[in-house]
Specification:
mainly alpha
Length: 228
């Protein structure tokens, strides 16, 4: 079985591939052979993983980013702007898998972290969904008061209350130079935004999101509301 056939069987199933970030561009730049081989390489540990595969995937993303940033530093590149409290990227709709949502829910129960379900419900009023309850890609997120645009887990100190179990997408947000343009506009990136992206991370998140496309399309807010 070739890498493409393996990915189609174990990752895509009967659906399409969900390409995270600019991964689709990699298909044209690297060629189909490299693309499918790298996607299989990224997906295989997750497919073979057990109950802790979500946490293992998050740890892999953290390790990849740490390693790649260290490599870039050796070549003189500046580190990401990101630091505790910058938080401009924490004012948008968040996607995660059901397994990640369960980990967040359990983390909050164990540590007595209150989940603002009222805010989650209000936020979802600005998220367009289809008949199946899946997000269509359209939002009116910016029509909310600023307090509701903020992530439900962003504390008054602008720090993440669920940092150890934050979703994959939150781990991959790396601002270059400034955080001034990190907040999207109704789901569309600010054209002035500059980020540090790593194709290795995009392969992994794309594989995970494709495997869990049904839950990812519900968004983190809906998944947490359903877990109450």
């Amino acid at each position: 079985m070739g890498p493409r056939e393996w990915v189609e069987k174990h990752v895509m199933g009967d659906g399409d591939l969900l390409c995270y970030g600019n991964l689709f561009d990699e298909l044209e730049e690297a060629g189909a052979g490299v693309f499918w081989e790298e996607l299989k390489r990224a997906a295989a540990p997750y497919v073979a993983g057990g109950r802790d595969r979500a946490r293992a995937a998050q740890a892999r993303v953290d390790d990849l980013i740490r390693t790649l940033l260290a490599r870039d530093a050796r070549f003189g590149y500046a580190p990401p702007f990101c630091h505790k409290g910058c938080a401009n990227c924490c004012h948008q709709l968040v996607y995660c898998t059901l397994e990640e949502a369960r980990a967040i829910h359990a983390h909050c129960l164990e540590r007595a972290i209150a989940i603002d379900y009222g805010k989650l419900q209000r936020q979802l009023r600005h998220v367009d969904v289809d008949a199946a309850g899946d997000h269509t890609g359209t939002t009116t997120w910016d029509d909310q008061p600023d307090a509701d645009r903020r992530c439900a887990f962003l504390g008054p100190d602008r720090a993440c209350a669920i940092w150890p179990v934050r979703p994959l997408v939150c781990r991959a947000q790396l601002a270059e130079g400034t955080d001034a343009h990190c907040t999207p506009h109704n789901g569309e990136p600010d054209p002035e935004a500059a980020g540090i992206t790593y194709v290795e991370v995009n392969y992994l998140i794309s594989a995970v999101f494709t495997i869990h496309r049904d839950s990812v399309k519900k968004t983190m807010g809906r998944l947490l509301l359903d877990l109450r």
